[in-house]
Amino acid sequence: MENKTVQNLKDGDQCLVIGGTHKGKSGRVSNVNTSKTGHITITVEQKNSVRFKTLGKNVVVTNEEE
């Protein structure tokens, strides 16, 4: 599994959440934003179409498909 840094996050990337409330969940990245304070926020859409928001620092991008 190859990991990318948060700066390389882009829509459509497969990711795994490694911290925060949604730890252990995975899905596709969408809606990448940078807040006024400089934090990266993303929406993750799981395979079952459930979506949740998390901080970019809480995810790693993976190349593997579920």
From TrEMBL:
Give the matching Pfam families: KOW (PF00467)
Instruction: Tell me which domain of life the UniProt entry assigns to the organism this sequence originates from.
Output: Bacteria
Query: Which residue intervals define the domain KOW in the entry?
Result: 8-35
SUPFAM superfamilies this protein is in?
Translation proteins SH3-like domain
Which InterPro entries does the record associate with it? KOW, Rib_uL2_dom2, Translation_prot_SH3-like_sf
From the Swiss-Prot or TrEMBL record, give the protein name. Answer: KOW motif-containing protein
